[in-house]
Amino acid sequence: MTARPTVWFRPLWLGLLIAAIAAITTGYTCITPFAAFAVIAATTLSRRDAVILAVALWLTNQAVGFGVGNYPWTAPTLAWGVAIGAAAVVATLVAHSAVRRLAALHTLARLATGFAAAFVLYELALYAAAVSMLGGAEAFAPTIVGQVLFVNAVTLVGLVGLHQLVVGAAVLSRRRRAHASPARLA
């Protein structure tokens, strides 16, 4: 018998990622770890799906921010939202490229490289937006960037663990189904 893919795995995984970013946005209004989400998307999804997820995560972040976090409806806030969305997509594309190019390396090396690339380009994209048109370059002081790095790193560890739990549940479900199949045929 060939193993069918577990139908619920993908929707569950995507739903958990969206729920996770909603929860994180509620707790950390100014630090959303898009680099961490970019890396987990790059390692678990196709390029197209990773970019779609990045946009969905950004939309969730903005919906929670404006709906629950009472972000002000001002032009600068909306412009920062667009800049954050663009930076999240760039981080996802960079992470995906780094992870795919290093496919021969150990998973941990791919995760670390993808994370470094995603984090640096995400921060650079936001810094460029701050310096060129939006203001707020003071938010890129080393201590603040260090805090953002820490939140992203901890989030990535949590997302990797969450992915392992979901994969384990899918494997267990397949095993149970495989063992039950002969009994149903008898």
Entry keywords:
about 190 residues, about 80% helix, mainly alpha
Notes on the protein architecture:
This protein is mostly helical and 186 residues long. The protein has one domain (13-169). It is built from six helices and no strands. It has helices at 9-27, 34-44, 47-67, 75-101, 107-134, 142-185. The longest helix is centred in the C-terminal third of the chain and has 44 residues, at 142-185. The chain is globular and about 60 Å long. The mean pLDDT is 89.
**H/E element string?**
HHHHHH
Distance between the termini: 15 Å
> Which descriptor suits the 3D outline?
globular
What is the alpha-carbon Rg in Å? 19 Å
Largest sheet: none
Quick check: average pLDDT? 89
Report the portion of residues in β strands: under 5%
Task: Report the uncertain regions.
Answer: none
Structural class call reads mainly alpha
Total of domains: 1
Tell me the helix content: over 70%
Count of alpha/pi helices:
6
The total beta strand count reads 0
